[in-house]
Amino acid sequence: MDLLPFLLTQCLNALSQAALLFFLGVGLTLIFGIMRIVNFAHGTFYMLGAFIGYSSARVTGSFWAGLVIGPLIAGAIGAAFEMGLLRRLYRRDASAFLMVTFGLTLVLGEIIRLIWGVDALQLEVPEVFSGIVFLFDEPFPTYRLFLAGAGVVVAVGIWQFLERTRLGLLIRATSQNAEMVHALGVDVNLVRTAIFGIGCGLAALGGVLAAPLVTASLGMAGNAIIDAFVIVIIGGMGSFLGSLLAAVLVAFVQVFGTYYFPDFALAAMYMLMLLVLVIRPGGLLGKEA
Amino acid sequence: MVNQADILRRTMLQAAAAAGFATLAGPAAAADPIKIGIPVALTGPLGGVGAQMRRACEFWAKEVNAKGGLLGRPVELVIEDTAGNPATTVRTVQEMVERDGIRVITAIVASNEALATVPKLAEWDTIFVSGDNGDGRLTAESLVPNFFRANVSGPMGTRAVALWLRDSPMKNFYGLGMDYAWGHNSMDVFAAEAKRAGKNFMGAVFSPTGTKDFSTYITKIRQSGAEGVYLVLAGDDNNAFLAQAKQYRLGDKVQMLTEQVDQMSINATGDSAIGLIGSSRYPFSLDNPVNKAFVAAWQAEYGRPPDLFEGDQYQSCKVLQAGIEKAGSIEAAKLRTALEGLAVTSVKGPIVMRACDHQAEQPGFIVKVVKREGMEHPVPEVIASYPADRVTPPCNKMVYDD
Predict the structure, then answer these.
(1) Which of B212, B240, B264 sits opposite A119 (nearest CB)?
(2) What ipTM was estimated for this complex?
(3) Residue-wise over A249-271: b if at least 16 C-beta within 10 A, else e?
(4) Whole domain around residue A143: which residue ranges?
(5) Residue B26 placed within a domain
(6) For A136-175, what is each residue's pLDDT tens digit?
(7) Nearest CA in chain B to A223
(8) Same domain, B241 and B384
(9) What is the pLDDT of residues B283-302, one digit of tens each?
């Protein structure tokens, strides 16, 4: 393989991975930034998305239906969880959230096992993206190009949502001063419910999109939650742009690190995290240092 | 005045009733069930394998009971979940022995569970017939008199692949394994076998357990220029690799080989597994009358063909059954003598439980995953089989002389 096609292939590999990492990290960072909640169940929502996406795609015969239904249902469950449980805990300290969301991972994980069983399930790549393109004679799956594209679209979408819509404005305002927003007559609880639902929905979106690469399996959640935390820590807790930057960085470090130093494949991501924490303890774009 | 005839009639009725009870009670006493302990991992990462093994035991018990039981007694399975934890397994079997009076166990999933259990078998006066445990040591340095292995061991699986390699026209091989003991171990064995077969082993790369993105590894395999790549991957990692390898069309250029092909990962990855070559402990497509009857009955019960752990565990149940019938008892001393040297016509053809190290001599199979008309998932098809005397290691050994 020549250098140029090699570099191109690896960069596109990294971008497609970055998209998946971004979906995972951005929801977690939004939830933390606005609600000050460390959502330990984030990986489980990612897994839930994959399983619901699998079933929806199977019933309707369309991957795209799964891509819409998975995040919607997972988001609704997340919102209901916020309304039913988390809301009662806002006056407690942070450890209460950690315990409750950790409990949710166990309950949801068990429910998924009861509904879908223990075997890994295959979600097929959608027909239109099942082919390959040739980059200087090297085959590259179009689905990975689609992933990278989806990452860009969702990132721009979230950015525009936060900047231009009324709900986006309320979300930003709530993150800065929830009491003031409340005093101005806005139902802050509703904003929190919305952001928790959206965050979980984004994780589920990542889960559905990742399923054709890794299959929907019970091991997804544990893997995902660690990646999500790493992204949030590198990017800076609560920073939207930070999570985007961190996802791209981590993906490039993983893809190239694995190639040149395969023995350090697992460590690459953590070494990057250590480096960032040493230089900028609050994360790349984090507010507090 | 009491009617003499009346008394006589009553007495006769009582006698008849008593006789009736006796005829009822007679078989009831003899029909004490034969209890078989199934300490199987149903939860945890091995739950999928455990579910297969339990299913095979249940299928076998149902079949035996439908034909009037074993030694005229019904078979009863006592099933307990061990979660794949060796300490739990030992405690579970202890309870089975003490509480339920169990003297025969099978269907332990993991080798480390089996290794923890075997030292206690003598004390419990219990026979353990393995249906899955692959660790070579169980019939070598860790062998105990009450342990029998009816299934294919790990070294036997690797051996089949090695024998196939010798006949293969491919010359250059590369490896991808999971970065822990099993991955490195199997890769070393493969590298040594490849060299012995006069092939060129070009090196290997190891991926951390839990790897999700295999794109870089796929790039490395492609760059190596090898004709075949040996995969030592399991579970989610294996599924992820196969799915992504297909998306990169890796199979067009490189033949993928693996130690063990199982239906679970084929089901999880669908067409991505097509073309994969590896050993199989039990390919359901075997062409012999015993197997055909088994597969047909299984298909009728579950609506799909049996998977490899189901077939291998079923074979173990049949070996156990033949042993109990020959011994006429489940007493450990008698059953042990009966099992030693026992010949059974199994789903894999004629097999022999050899006396020297309690390993069942049986053939080895190499399969290739193919798409078959009318099947929901791709299936493994036998492309080569090797006779028992070439696949089974020398007595009490884990390595082969040639």
Answers:
(1) B264
(2) 0.88
(3) bbbbbbbbbbbeebeebbebbee
(4) 22-218
(5) no
(6) 888 899 999 999 999 999 999 999 998 999 988 988 888 8
(7) B210
(8) yes
(9) 998 999 999 999 999 999 99
